[in-house]
Specification:
Blueprint (H helix, E strand, L loop, with lengths): L1 H14 L15 H5 L6 E7 L11 E4 L4 E7 L3 E11 L10 E7 L7 E4 H5 L9 E2 L3 E3 L7 E3 L3 E3 L3 E7 L5 E13 L8 E10 L26 E7 L2 E12 L10 E5 L7 E2 L3 H4 L10 E2 L3 E5 L8 E8 L5 E3 L2 E6 L10 E10 L22 H14 L11
């Protein structure tokens, strides 16, 4: 019983609900503790798609292909603390990889957030599935409700827009943008940034030598050809990544190490031990898993690791800080020896709203088709010819 009370006491201390004797109030913190504090000089506001006539048609209508709509425009200073979106038709017709969300801070004419709306909220490709992390979620309703709880401060206005780059009309677009109007804006608040990148990576000239299956594995000491998920100029801290990989082979895609170049380093000061390790998992996982800070909301259901997988990690207690620049990279297979279709959304804060790297075009981020059983049988056909077309060839001679 004594141990039970000790455990409860430490849990309460960790949640900020109680203190030990001799601990000053100034040193107590925690989300639930801070939630109880009464605030001054704060006013809540909401911009939503509610029906201005008072009827029940609470959505924007008919956003046509090629059209851009501003869904929120705010003046003054404040903090967006909640965004919710849903739209129709569903992903079977309206690919959320081709609906773009952009956010502009402080009157800038360039966005500090630019991403396909699905990948931003944790929905890869043209699919829908439930996803739940600390700052972002998709679902329930099989991933149809998209929510963000990222803190998004602005001192001189904010604007959020949606561009329809699909070939379908967005028939219904519902949204909330909840924000706080601040009479006094804190000087130490950074600006929220998010950037989508995509690359069909190239295998080595000697082939895809992963796990030594087709040749000797090489070495990668420089990270020169790594996939780049963050390329940031300025001062700030990195807080999260959604990682979407489509693997065209049954071989494990995740031997690639993460490498971080901070403030112009030529040799990365942070190097990982494998893709699954970067996402806090282990031993080539193929199971759906959800934690507030990391997880696998979508895994391939094909043979081996053939197919699509989505992993995420948020650096809530362990942000990556930088004073001048940050280049976040990861290998595509050990020594960058695999052809993979990789897309990522990186999330970070900077001391001021900054320009993002170039966004991939619709053509550059186009979805790759799924490898199917007929494709694999054709591979076997070519292998048989290479082996002399013997009538009893099995497949692993």
């Amino acid at each position: 019983m004594k141990n039970y009370f000790k455990i409860v006491l430490f849990l309460l201390i960790g949640m900020g609900l109680c203190t030990l004797p001799g601990v000053s109030q100034e040193n107590v913190s925690g989300e639930l503790y801070d939630l109880a504090k009464v605030k001054n000089g704060v006013k809540n506001h909401r911009i939503s798609s509610y029906d201005r006539s008072g009827n029940n048609r609470d959505h924007l209508k008919n956003i046509k292909p090629g059209e851009t709509r501003t869904i929120a425009e705010i003046s003054g200073s404040g903090i967006i603390n909640h965004i919710w979106i849903t739209m129709a038709p569903g992903p079977d017709r309206l690919c959320r990889n081709d609906v773009i969300i952009r956010m502009y801070w402080d009157g800038n004419d360039y966005p500090s957030v630019e991403s396909p709306i699905g990948p931003f909220f944790g929905q890869g490709w043209d699919e829908q599935y439930n996803y739940a992390a600390f700052p972002l979620s998709a679902g329930p309703g099989n991933g149809t409700g998209l929510s963000s709880y990222f803190t998004m401060p602005f001192a001189k206005g904010a604007r959020i827009e949606i561009e329809n780059q699909t070939n379908e009309t967005i028939g219904s677009f519902y949204f909330y943008v909840d924000y706080l109007e601040l009479k006094k804006f804190p000087n130490d608040m950074g600006r929220f940034h998010a950037w989508y990148n995509h690359e069909l990576t190239e295998a080595l000239p000697e082939g895809e030598t992963e796990w030594g299956a087709t040749g000797k594995e090489g070495e990668n000491k420089t990270g020169e050809n790594n996939y780049v998920f963050a390329d940031i100029q300025g001062k700030g801290h990195f807080v999260g990544i959604n990682y979407y990989v489509h693997c065209p082979t049954t071989m494990w895609y995740g031997e690639g190490d993460d490498m971080w170049f901070i403030d112009g380093e030529s040799v990365p000061s942070m190097i990982g031990t494998g893709t699954e390790d970067f996402f806090n998992t282990s031993w080539c996982p193929k199971e759906v898993f959800s934690h507030p800070y990391f997880g696998y909301p979508r895994v391939n259901n094909d043979f081996g690791w053939l197919g699509r997988t989505h992993a995420y990690r948020f650096f809530i207690n362990d942000p990556v800080f930088f004073e001048k620049s940050l280049k976040g990279t990861i290998e595509h297979g050990h020594n960058n020896n695999l052809t993979l279709d990789i897309a990522t959304v990186a999330y970070w804060y900077q001391d001021k709203a900054s320009v993002l790297p170039k966004a991939p075009t619709k053509e550059e981020r186009s979805l790759k088709p799924m490898i199917n059983s007929t494709d694999i049988h054709k591979w076997r056909h070519e292998w048989r010819k290479n082996k002399g077309n013997g009538a009893t060839l099995w497949g692993n001679e």
